[in-house]
Amino acid sequence: HTSKSSILLNMKHRISEKCSNRIRNMKKKRKRRRKSESYFVDDDDLLLEIFVRIPDIQSIVRCGAVCKNWFSLIKSPDYYHKRIQFQSLPLPLSFTFIFKLKDYHGSRVVTEQFYEYLPEESKILHGFNSYQQSTYLNFLPWRKVRIFSTFNDLLLFSPDRHCVTRLMICNPLTRQWIELPRLPLALCQVDCGGFLCEPTLPLQHNKQQFKLDQYRYRVMLLYPDGPVIYDDYEGRTDYTALTFCSETGIWSTSSSSFPGDFDTQPMVACNGMLHCLEETMDMNYTVDRIIAMDPFRDANHPKFHRSIDLPLDCRMGINLSNVVRFRLGLVKERLRLSQLLPNESAGIGFVLKVWELNYNYVDDCNDNDGFSWTWTLVHNVEVKDRHKLRLFVIAFHPNNGNVIFLLRGYRHIYQYDIVEGKMKQVGKLPDEAKKSCYADLQVFTLVHPFWPTLLPSV
Amino acid sequence: MSSSSTTTTTTRLLMLKASDGVTFEVEEAVATKLGAINNMVEEEGSEDLICLPNVNGKFLGMVLEWCKKHANNNTNSDKGNDEVNKWWDKEFVMDLDQNTLYHLLMAADYLSGTELVDLLTEKVASMIRGKKVEEIRETFKIKSDFLPGQEEEIRKKNSWAFE
């Protein structure tokens, strides 16, 4: 019950005793502060607080070369956990889309141009402050490249403009690339290509930096072997698979025959297999089924490729099951399929369905080859949208199953939250995009892990 | 008993004493922005003189200046306050030299001024961003203690980050 004015008078005699008590209570947390000649912050907790606030991966890697303590902190699980917490983002941290546009002059492709869309987190990770279009792949010494597919943050491409003889794997974030051994033959028509990596040792995912040589990987190109064969109005193409095996360093070919044609969309690697949509040969570009290829098996093996039927509740028929209505992609490393159709009953808007594929592992002696699957319908929404512009799904959000990316009127990139029904424009392709046909637009998704995947120096 | 028109706004005052003997008289609402002081006040429950033997007067003064600004701005429950605070924080860290920044950060951490620690670590991080290894060492006066070859190995492994 002391009054304010008398604080000092009353307290003076108690000061010294009390102060010492308090200081003891005050700083229990100074656990890891160490004695060091270094002048700057030498408290590990504080240093970690600083490091998590450095958003671009390049600066962080540089910090690791400053001194021993900084190096060990950046490599520590503490840094990893704090960083995740700080960013409050689910893993993987960010992603980048690369769009490929073709510009036709008559029936001849005149130019192929790449454009990229980086969400804010991805820009930060790359250390991009301002962002201009069409510069992402400019570090490559080739003016034109052909991209086949992506796996996590790696890109499979060929610098050859006409017949493919060279293939490269590149990490655009670290700007490194490696060349695979030359192809045994020059391929003048490659319909699709994909690649797939598997860690050779059980590694703690995302907690350490991967190097490509810690993976075993397969690269596969599919090319038509001879002309399309028509019998009884049914088309059939014989394809040859050219597969590269990282363990042997050898390319090998083997023939396989598929009844249809492959969609030009990039193959999607999931569950140790490469997936793509297969079109019927009826000139309507109707999607029939999904082909799953296992590049870790010999292409002559009966289990090399299997077909996965489309979900029963997806709509089939001319225009309805046209290839542009479907999109295959990954959400949290699981395969998803979307179908977006105009809302006929309402007259305006659209109907969007999204399914997820579940692989069931059954015993190999089963009838089904040890291979079975089920589709789960994850989203089924009807949107009464007043805009009449053409709308297509371009990509899935790799971490958030409720979010999908749409292309509107051939140019505008929208992020659509299916559950909340929120549509937001996030980017825009350049004017030239209007000239290109949606079916020719390819979208490649790069998903950046916590640490970028390193490529072995050659 | 029925005293008072005088005790309406009882802003309690605390005395803080820095290592060099400099004392500061601050309102409780201001000082309790610092976690350490807040704990003491809650534990003890009475007014007091608080000694802070690890903080120099100059830096304690700066920390308290920051607390004061934030305590004041937070009392007006205005929406524009966040903006004001941000602007003020920016000014606060703008021209800090490395030495002051270091001592201020140590003081803020010691006093558990979480928000201030956030602000200052953010500032340090911005000073590291985009710098070369040598520049980081120079800015923060850090000596490399790698064994011969170790640094080269890190650089070689991550050559992309060093250009």
Describe the fold and architecture:
The complex is a heterodimer of chains A (458) and B (163). Chain A is mainly beta and 458 residues long. Chain A has 3 domains: 1-33; 43-86; 94-448, Neuraminidase. Chain A is 13% helix and 39% strand. Chain A is built from 7 helices and 25 strands. Chain A has helices at 7-11, 15-26, 44-51, 57-63, 68-75, 77-87, 120-126, and strands at 94-105, 108-117, 146-151, 154-158, 168-171, 176-179, 192-199, 215-224, 229-231, 234-245, 250-258, 261-262, 268-270, 273-279, 287-293, 305-309, 326-331, 334-342, 350-361, 371-383, 391-396, 403-408, 412-417, 422-428, 442-448. In chain A, strands 7, 8, 9, 10 and 11 form a 5-stranded antiparallel beta sheet that branches. In chain A, strands 12, 13, 14, 15 and 16 form a 5-stranded antiparallel beta sheet that branches. In chain A, strands 3-4-5-6 form a 4-stranded antiparallel beta sheet, with no helix packed on it. The radius of gyration of chain A is 27 Å and the shape is globular. Chain B is mainly α and 163 residues long. Chain B has a 3-stranded mixed beta sheet. Chain B is elongated and about 65 Å long. Chain B starts with 12 loop residues before the first strand and ends with a helix. The longest helix of chain B has 19 residues, at 57-75. Chain B has one domain (13-142): Potassium Channel Kv1.1, Chain A. Chains A and B meet through helix 1, helix 2, helix 3, helix 4 and helix 5 of A and helix 2, strand 3, helix 5, helix 6 and helix 7 of B. Chain B: Pathway: Protein modification; protein ubiquitination. Chain B: Residues 115-161 form the SKP1 component dimerisation domain. Chain B: It comes from Trema orientale.
Q: Layout of SSEs?
A:
The complex is a heterodimer of chains A (458) and B (163).
Chain A: H1 7-11, H2 15-26, H3 44-51, H4 57-63, H5 68-75, H6 77-87, E1 94-105, E2 108-117, H7 120-126, E3 146-151, E4 154-158, E5 168-171, E6 176-179, E7 192-199, E8 215-224, E9 229-231, E10 234-245, E11 250-258, E12 261-262, E13 268-270, E14 273-279, E15 287-293, E16 305-309, E17 326-331, E18 334-342, E19 350-361, E20 371-383, E21 391-396, E22 403-408, E23 412-417, E24 422-428, E25 442-448
Antiparallel strand pairs in A: 1-2, 1-25, 3-4, 4-5, 5-6, 7-8, 8-10, 9-10, 10-11, 12-14, 13-14, 14-15, 15-16, 17-18, 18-19, 19-20, 21-22, 22-23, 23-24
Chain B: E1 13-18, E2 23-27, H1 28-31, H2 35-44, E3 49-52, H3 57-75, H4 81-94, H5 98-110, H6 114-128, H7 133-140, H8 150-157, H9 159-162
